[in-house]
Structures are given as structure tokens and as C-alpha cells.
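Problem 12. The chain below contains 345 residues. Write out its predicted structure in C-alpha cell notation.
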Amino acid sequence: MSKNKTIVIVLIIVLIFFGQKLIKNSKKSPAELTTVNSNLEAEKAMEAIPEDGVAMATENNGLQALGYKMDKDVKVFSLIAEPVRWKILNDVTVTAWAYNGMVPGPLIRVTNGDKVRILIKNNLPEPTTIHWHGIQVPNNMDGIPEETQKPIEPGETFTYEFVAKPAGTYWYHSHFDSDKQISVGLSGAFIIDPVSGLKSKPDIDKVLMLNEWRVIDGQTYASMPATGMDGNYFTINGKAYPETETIEAKVGQKIRLRFIGSGQMIHPMHLHGFPFKIVATDGNDVPESAQWTKDTVSVAPGERYDVEFTPDRPGKWMVHCHIPHHNTNDHEEPGGIMMMINVTN
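Solution.
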């Protein structure tokens, strides 16, 4: 046997050996991974979310208002982080990590200046924390693992306590392994109302959280666009069209939509039929003289835009992301981030 052939055979054996080690050490997801056995923690985050023993959610809709108990002058809320099987479509179920068994998590709604206490029980298979995105909390309540607090280990309960301020549209989400944990459901909305209510006095006030999901061969993966693990399902408040909510309105009613970019992709949200005014950004009111009139607003990850409009004629008017791929369910249109506003006389 020639020397060159011997070298080729040795190289093949070495490649097979290391290939077997890679398969053994990391269950690769169907994606173009940027690591090759050099970052097993990252590769683990790209694996399918375990579904064995995970129960179906008992709730059908996310963002349900979270009740509270009073402890003197403090409003006390309770959250449980746990895995659930969640329907984003009638025939598509994802394995989600959710707060209180719903996606998105419950809507926490309080008044500016309220004292709040939030107990979070971790029933996940790994640690977690909660960050109160945009709310002016004390530093030790900010939810940054190993910096402002120790991670909340499985089985543990942690208490967050702060004064809710200022008024505006906010959200809460995991800040531990957030590339995965937020992507598979650990977020919810937190609305702080002005003491005297909104000056614009909308008749309809809706929160719309925008997310992406990755489902391959029935298994759920975190949607991580930068790794090649793009989402193939897209949701508003945990549902993809045609299972998204239809908003029922009357001609002449003022409608306020609070867009929250709670995923990893930008979503240019477009309203059919009417222009709207951007009345608040990231929880901050926009002075009337500075309010832009538009029909499309790009909502980046983490951003919040409050828009208002008053329909002057009836019809079935669509709100949707204007990236066409985000209007599909596993590449089939129509689907994804679409919903209807049904305006009647």
C-alpha cells in the first residue's frame, strides 16, 4: 500500500472517531451550528425542548389578567414557571416554558406608584430569573443572574418587590439562558396605568406580543435566527393565524394597540384601512405635537409601541407583520402574525 493511501485511511479513521464523539456529546438540532464540540452549552441550548411527561396546558389563551392579594398596602402576585404543551394552532402543539401555564404569561396590570410583590416558583428543569423590562426597579430586583441575584434553581421560590413606576407598557421575561427561555415562552406583559387613567381614553385597549417558534418534525426548538435556527411559525399572543384573536369594534371607537417585540426578530406591523398615531414608545408618552401618523411601525426585539386610531367605516381590517415570511405557518400562507379587526356600525 502506498504511503499516500495509508495517510488517507488514517485520516478517515480519525474523522469517524471524532464524529462519533460529537454525536455522543451533543444531540444536534437540524440547523447550521456554528460550534463543533467547542461549546457544548450552546449546542445544548439548540437541542429540542424535552417533552416527555409535559402536560397539555389547561388554559387556551395567554395574557390573562393575573389576580393578586393585598398584604397591607402591597399587591402580591404569584407566578410559576413550568413546561407545558401549548397549541399555537389547532393542529400544531409546541413544548413551551410558560408562566402560570399560558403563553404569553399572565398580564400584570397595576397603577403607577403601586407597591408590588411577585413570588416566582421555578418548576423548570434549569435555573431562571425574571427581568422587569423598562420598569424602574431597584438594582437587586433587576433579575440579572450572578450580578444582581443568584439564579433561581429548580424547586426554589424567589420574591421580587418594588414600586411599579412609571406608567406605560412594559413586559417581563427570563434573563437566564434567555436565548432559549424567552424563545420558548417565558415572557408576559406588565402594564402600569396612570393614576387618573389614559388621557386619550381609548374604548379598546389591547396588548399584542409578537414571537417566533421553531417546530421541526413535531419537536420544539428555540428560535435562534443568528444560528440558522430560524422560526417557521410566528405568533401574536401565543397564537398563529387563523387562531389569532379577532378584535370586535364599532365605528367611532378609539382603539389602542400595544405592540411588544418579545421575540428575536423585527416585525413591521401594518394596519389595513386606517392610519394610526404613535402615542407612546417604550413606556414613554409621545407629546401630541411629536406623534407620527403612520400605517406601519417596525417593532424590534424588546421595543414597545402604543398606537391609536379610530375607524370611520365598517369592515374586516387586517393587522399583520409586513415581512411576508412572517405571515406563514411552516412556509404556508396565510398564517403567522396576522389578525383581524372586525368593525361594525
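Discussion. The chain has three domains: 3-45, 69-193, 204-344. Students who got a different answer should revisit the alignment rule from Section 12.3.
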